[in-house]
């Protein structure tokens, strides 16, 4: 069953009467439980598409369906992560994780249990009472994952969540997300990245977008079975697929 479906999506920004067409005729289907990544050149419209899927960006043309209903505005069942963890500096780790539940005004005690469990699963149980400035960049992004998941969202949207981290921490975050996904999450995810290897390791499918006005030109199935481990990145087939994607992306950036 298609869970998220875009038909002829278009986005025109019109700042001060100077129209910029970001997306042009974007068509895709994401099944429930799939992990899909988007690769594409900078400024092509990836974040725009992700924000549309969150119900936070207006659609200029076309139809976006989520769980069988047209997208009309922000949805409560969406968790989001950005490149910047955007934690509230005056709140403790546990209160940052609980923040979406407080906004949604749901009873906090059952959610608190979930928040504890999430923080334990990312190795931050001992830091619940700390404030964000006492944490490393990778730890802050782990808090941000827990916050995105605390309301048990059916859709997880991630916009370059690990791009600001150093290479080793980024690899560790990939493994963490892979493990979380395989052990307990398995919901529907849309993940934007500029890293081909990260996309191949984490995803079931990869959408390749063109330069602006962007459309999805390739829909690549990642054939590796789950559970996956980081050793997959040393596999010949893994590297062959990365090379194939690289040349596809170079082609799609031309012209
Ligand atoms: N609020 C806005 N008003 C006007 N133009 C915008 C707005 N948001 C994005 N754009 C334009 O739309 C285009 C797509 O932007 P978007 O942020 O979606 O790209 P992106 O693929 O996420 O880029 P990057 O890889 O650099 O994050 C860009 O040309 C950008 O300047
Ligand atoms: Mg972006």
Give an account of the 3D structure:
- The chain has a domain at 1-77 and 157-162 and 189-255: Rossmann fold, CATH 3.40.50.
- Helices cover 36% and strands 24% of the residues.
- It has helices at residues 46-53, 93-104, 108-121, 137-149, 167-185, 196-202, 236-253; strands at residues 2-13, 20-31, 35-39, 61-66, 69-70, 78-81, 155-159, 188-192, 205-209, 216-221.
- The strands form two sheets. It has a six-stranded mixed beta sheet with strand order 6-7-8-3-9-10, sandwiched between helices.
- Helix 5 links the parallel strand 7 and strand 8.
- It starts with a strand and ends with a helix.
- The structure holds adenosine-5'-triphosphate and magnesium ion (MG).
- Magnesium ion (MG) binds at residues 46-47, 159.
Key descriptive features of the protein:
255 residues, alpha/beta, Rossmann fold, 6-stranded mixed sheet, 4-stranded antiparallel sheet, 7 helices, 10 strands, 36% helix, 24% strand, globular, binds adenosine-5'-triphosphate, binds magnesium ion
Give the overall silhouette.
globular
Architecture of one domain, CATH level 2?
A: 3-Layer(aba) Sandwich
CATH H-level homologous superfamily name of one domain:
P-loop containing nucleotide triphosphate hydrolases
Q: Give a count of the beta strands, DSSP E runs of length 2 or more.
A: 10
């Amino acid at each position: 069953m298609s869970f998220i479906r875009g038909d002829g999506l278009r986005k025109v920004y019109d700042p001060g009467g100077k129209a910029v067409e970001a997306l042009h005729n974007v068509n895709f289907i994401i099944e429930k439980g799939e992990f899909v990544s988007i690769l594409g050149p900078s400024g092509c419209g990836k974040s725009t598409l992700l924000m549309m899927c969150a119900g936070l960006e207006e659609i200029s043309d076309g139809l976006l369906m989520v769980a069988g209903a047209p997208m009309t505005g922000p949805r409560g069942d969406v968790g989001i992560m950005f490149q910047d963890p955007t934690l509230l500096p005056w709140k403790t780790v546990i209160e940052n994780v609980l923040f979406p539940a407080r906004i949604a005004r749901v009873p906090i005690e059952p959610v608190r249990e979930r928040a504890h469990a999430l923080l334990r699963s990312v190795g931050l149980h001992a830091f619940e009472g700390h404030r964000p400035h006492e944490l490393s960049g990778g730890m802050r992004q782990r808090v941000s994952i827990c916050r995105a998941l605390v309301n048990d969202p059916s859709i997880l949207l991630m916009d370059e969540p690990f791009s600001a981290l150093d290479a080793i921490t980024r690899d560790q975050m990939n493994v963490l997300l892979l493990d979380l996904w395989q052990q307990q999450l398995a919901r529907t995810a849309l993940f934007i990245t500029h890293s081909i290897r990260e996309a191949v390791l984490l995803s079931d499918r990869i959408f390749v977008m063109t330069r602006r006005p962007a459309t999805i030109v390739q829909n690549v199935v990642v054939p590796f079975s789950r559970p996956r481990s980081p050793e997959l990145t040393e596999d010949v087939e893994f590297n062959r697929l990365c090379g194939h994607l690289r040349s596809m992306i170079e082609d799609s950036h031309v012209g």
